[in-house]
């Protein structure tokens, strides 16, 4: 695994922005392809859509956890942030 990925332990997905159909992976990245999810996107709008929907998922998940333990104030803040992130996805076409 490359030294960069060894120091960052909470990465679960890596996005690659490319205009090419075929990607030539450097050898050190080829070894880490089984460790992370790799998502290839072809333009910035597609990248933003992926990032914003991931943020929506994260906020809803956090809101559910707060609601489960009875902290409805934090749950509502998380759900509000999820709605805001979801609203940001509409201009990205």
Short key terms for the protein model shown above:
elongated, 93 residues, two-stranded parallel ribbon, mainly alpha
Helix % is: 55-70%
pLDDT averaged residue by residue: 79
How many separate helices? 4
| CA radius of gyration | 17 Å
In order across it, which strands form the biggest sheet?
1-2
The overall number of domains is 2
Major sheet characteristics: 2 strands, parallel
Poorly predicted parts: none
Order of helices and strands: HEHEHH
Termini, distance in Å? 35 Å
Instruction: Kindly estimate the percentage of residues that lie in beta strands according to DSSP.
Output: 5-15%
Question: What is the approximate shape?
Answer: elongated
- Summing up helix and strand content along with how strands pair, one would put the structural category as mainly alpha
- The tally of beta strands, per DSSP, is 2
């Amino acid at each position: 695994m490359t030294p960069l990925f060894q120091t960052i332990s909470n990465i679960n997905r890596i996005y690659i922005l490319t205009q090419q159909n075929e990607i030539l992976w450097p050898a050190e990245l080829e070894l880490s392809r089984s460790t992370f999810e790799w998502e290839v996107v072809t333009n910035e709008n597609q990248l933003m859509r992926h990032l914003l929907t991931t943020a929506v998922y994260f906020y809803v998940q956090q809101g559910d956890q707060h609601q489960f333990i009875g902290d409805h104030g934090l749950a509502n803040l998380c759900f509000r942030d999820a709605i805001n992130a979801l609203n940001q996805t509409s201009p990205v076409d």
